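Subject: mismatched residue count in predicted assembly?

I count 487 residues in my input, but I want to confirm that the predicted structure covers every chain. Input:
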Amino acid sequence: MSELRIYNTLSREKEVFQPLNAPHVGMYVCGPTLYSFAHLGNCRTFMSFDVVFRYLKHLGYKVRYVRNITDVGHLESDGDVGEDKIAKRARLEKLEPMEVVQLYAVDFHKVLDDFNLLPPSIEPSASGHVIEQIEMTKKIIENGLAYEVDGTVWFDVEKFAKTYPYTELSGRKLDELLEGTRDNLEGQSEKRGRLDFALWKKAKPEHIMRWPSPWGEGFPGWHIECSAMSSKYLGEQFDIHGGGMDLIPTHHTNEIAQSVACCKKSPAKIWMHTNMLTVNGQKMSKSLGNSFLPEELFEGRHALLERGYSPMVVRFFMLQAHYRSTLDFSNAALQASEKGFQRLMNAVKLIADLKTSATSSFHFEKIKTEVYDALNDDFNTPVAIAALFEGVRIINSINDAKDTITAADKEQVQKLFSEIVFDVLGLKQETTGHSDKVSGLMNLILDLRKDVRTKKDFAASDKIRDELLKVGIQVKDGKEGVTWTSN
RNA sequence: GGUCGGGUGGCCGAGUGGUUAGGCAGAGCUCUGCAAAAGCUCGUACAGCGGUUCAAAUCCGCUCCCGACCUCCA
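Triage response: the counts match. Full output below for your records.
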């Protein structure tokens, strides 16, 4: 079987995955800032890493997956001028900051649960690690790479860049960043270099969230939390650090700088970045106002949607694109995925009842190899799914007695589909949740319909079928009897 | 403006120097009382223009178009 290879943003190529301390794997993913509801684009990133988490576990690794919660320190604008996002929200809604965080945390977890994401091993919050962030900041000052001005501590990027390739992750040129004209230092705060960012911010009198520190009352900067928490739970060096692509140039670049400045070590071996979800070719984002809330999608409450789509259909839709490609969101694409998802799941259901033969008329190993080769190739879920569909065709064909399968192969197929579809891709059969009453009614109706069909009263029979279809119940007359599905 | 990424059949979306992506939609056939489901067959796509090569959609150059980042953003 092929080796797992992962695309590393640092090297810009796929590298064979070799954990620092096999079988243990440490993975850190930048989580949400809880100042609003998570939209679908946010969900895509966490879903991508959910598959990474699941696949690594499937391969037998003992994964510690840390995904943080940002509940303090994330500013509206750049490190100088903005207001803390959560503090602002709290002020506007007249809530305690922790109330704001709680509201969106509950929603966030519910949504990810709807999408069948596994919870991370540890979900640390920034506000719960202020001490660690202060300690790290102190160390960076000791190492001469940060300075305090009037209660605020700044990271000295230009000094750091003399001994370390500050822009290694983004591939930008430092000179060009320094030359940038979009803002200048005039009229701005006390920081020395235009790229310098805050490790600790002095709290203004009206600021609600504040902690004591060696530099007076204040709160931690946005980037330092991830450096502090990743090193606390995964060590100074760990295997995988992930997040959305938009975090590369600032957040992740600064994270590396902080960790190196503090511990002299680059924190992660592999940096993984997911691409954006787009709507009509444009990035889905809150500021552009084109974002979808998962709830709106499930219920079809959105101008761009003709109707709702279930969480598993959406999950399947997202897995049909590679995590490093943009994925364009549209009604038609969702519809296509819905059909495909149903086809896949129907086939999975069929496996258990397949009749076995003395020989198999297909090569199971070929499908299995294709699936694993795909997943090993930087978690290529769309190709893995394509290989599974080859299996779907065969399963259906066996069910139609046009192909054959041995008992041993059937067991293998069952195992492969169960492990890949459910455990790795994280899909699940969506229970239609009929009550006993509905089932009883359906049995009665179909029984009556059977009677009229025996009498060749097809008009009556078809009327029953057509009327049921109108309320969303589809009747299928198979060779083995009548089945029905409800949506 | 700078940096980076991309333009694939009706739609979504993989891949890549020579061999099938896959899903959805469409056409035909089989099965069926008819439907549905399922199976089989079919469309022969890679923005444009040059170049390299025995061979390019895949490499190189130019042009056009789109996007991301450079400001908070997964």
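Residues 181-187 of chain A have pLDDT under 50 and may be disordered. Marking this ticket as 'not a bug'.
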